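Input record (one chain):
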Amino acid sequence: MTETTTIEPVETTTTAFPPPPRPAKSFRIVLNLNYRETRMDNVLLKALHEQDENPSLKIISRGALKDLFTKSRIEIKGQRAKSSSAINKGLTYVDILGF
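The corresponding structure, as predicted from the sequence alone:
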């Protein structure tokens, strides 16, 4: 099964609802999934490696990403995300605090 993840600039994304406000001093990545994913960590790691906007997150390791989840520095809609959180089909705005 092929996974399709695209990273879109927030300014060009058109949805029925406006995107949630981005927290100060954070990096936002937009995941656009064609189907539901049972775990967020693998999808997010792949998307971070594919993006070019933040060099330090582009080379992040699986362990370092796990540490960000543990320290509650990854949020979806202003709420703490867990690495085992499922992601629904469609657009998901993920904010990584401190980047």
